[in-house]
Predict the structure.
Amino acid sequence: MYGGIAVTLMSMLPQEVIDSIIDHLYDDVQSCRACLQAHRCMKDAAYTQIFRTVPIVQPANTFDNSGTYIVRRFHRFYDLLKTSPHVALYVRKLILWEEATQLQRRQYRRGWMHTEQDLARLLAALPKLQALHLDGHNDYLSWQDMTDAVKQGITTVLLLPSLRSVVVQRFNDFPISTVLSSPSLTYLGVLHCDGVFLDRDTTTTPVEELLLHDISMTLLRWLSSPTASGCLSSLTSLTLWPSKEQNISFPRHLHRVSDDILSAAPNLVNLVFAPIAYRNKHLQFQTHTTLT
């Protein structure tokens, strides 16, 4: 009885107050689910908290070595979207991890994200997505080995006007210029990507923050080239993490092209140079430079 009275009283509050109360339940999924059942005035805020971030990943405390945990998780969410398509309107961030069974590794050397046809359909069903994180996890993703349908699905998301942030991790030959063609991108993170594919598309969108982890000489040369100047004009923060193999020679190469980078990025305020080989044992080698 008291629960019913509490719900009735809460429904009499201004909607802004109700939304604010539920916003504080962002880390309590069970309570948010209870709010969905309690009263219609709570549904919108509860849906927002439950589906704002959708991690298609394998938690660290899950001991499932079948190579299918993430795939099953993906299909459960996709089935939910098919039965309740309105849920897609609440998804703001999507995190996808690669995963492969032993048979897939032996036969195809690639996991589910390379060939999953429903992945393209899922991506096409998220019209308000603001952040996309693609992670090869224990394997590496390869753009070249993906089916055309999956490539098209990823490209469609990258061109969404709502997209603000993209992180690609352990993703080889990823077409970075396609990301930079996103009309509203403000943050791009490229982590542990060998041989990032840099095509010559000059239709780029200025980004505000750029994180490059395990940066190669190819990527460094691209940063200082006219091709990249279009995306650096609004850059305010640049973080460079060279690969272990480049730790010794990287500072010398960076010095050679630094003038070109600064010229292409007149609004740059923070330049972070963090050699990963020294980040734990020799913190004095890290530099964080504020430009004035």
Notes: Residues 68 and 101 are 7 Å apart (CA to CA). Residues 1-9, 276-292 have pLDDT under 50 and may be disordered.
